[in-house]
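[Help] Beginner question about ligand-bound structures

Sorry if this is basic. My supervisor gave me a protein sequence and a SMILES string for zinc ion and asked me to "get the holo structure". I don't really know what that means in practice or what format the answer should be in. Inputs are pasted below exactly as I got them.
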Amino acid sequence: MEPQMKRWKGSACDADSWVAYPVLSDEQSQDVELIEAFAAPIVNKKETSQLVRELNSLYPLNGLQHIKRVRARKEKGSPHPLEVLVCLVSDAPDMKVVSVDSLLPGVKPDGLGEPFVVKVPARAPLTRPQFELASQHWPTSFHEDKQVTVALRGELFSPPQKAVMHMYMMSAVTAAKAGRELGMEAVGAVVVDPAMERIVAVGHDCRGDHPLHHAVMVCIDLVARSQGGGCYCFDSYPACQFTPPTSNMFQNGPDLEAGSQPYICTGYDLYVTREPCVMCAMALVHSRIGRVFYGTGSADGAFGTKFKIHAQKDLNHRFEVYKGVLSKQCEDLSSLNDHIKKDSGQ
Ligand SMILES: [Zn+2]
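Answer (accepted):
No worries, everyone starts somewhere. Holo just means with the ligand present. The predicted complex, written as structure tokens, is below.
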């Protein structure tokens, strides 16, 4: 395809073999919750705005601003083409008596037909799938995040972007295999500076030395070393490497106290063959990773399977996570691990 892609082994077709999907927050991925409400036909269309004003003042629908007050009836030819949401069933004065009189004391009752119960979405939709489901029940407003919509279709990354992502994850797969050769679990990770399009650090599982040396922890330490910090020495693992910065962008060093920028992984992407565990996920939060891409899920994974650390509202750093990059090759690595009797995680 493009000349620059010839630099790495493989073809553009390889990058067509996988799709990266976003790992969204629980709020973005949950089912649409419905609550019951009373609606009624509007007898005289001309009174619609007056009715809506009165209803808004009697039953303001607090916290349900996403719900439209009036809807058009789906069936054509109805004598009353518009229906209005009167109130939530839970807000109705007496649930046993369902009449316009009882629901709307003080409002002239002949403006509305017989009330009936409908289900309306309890929360504002955050994604297009949620919006489409919610709208089947009652018209709902939706402030679309176009990037999320495109990402959910698996179309966020262009073919040239995917080719580059493919190359980075291949480096992680290669590192995983190198670690496996040394008796470690076959898990590899790569930290990339996407702005400079360069690999900052490559690491693999090193738990033969230290129980905490998961591939991601190794990588973060190597990034810190590239900035003049770091705690560990991985010299006995030739596949674990870091690239010193090419400019003076890290002249301040990893200044933990002042929080000078960039800090460890600020603006960087992580490619890791397997979904990180909680420890690694928290290390990525603390090191201010930009984005995370992983190949395949893991039972104790903290980016979608068991937890969604990256979307945790009470943490002070959140980031995007995508799964499925080189999924097949990353899944194949786990078969290399099958006979290793170690605790899971990475
Ligand atoms: Zn881990």
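A couple of things worth pointing out: Residues 214, 216, 276-277, 279-280, 345-346 surround zinc ion (CB under 6 Å). The two ends are 36 Å apart (CA to CA). Feel free to follow up in the thread.
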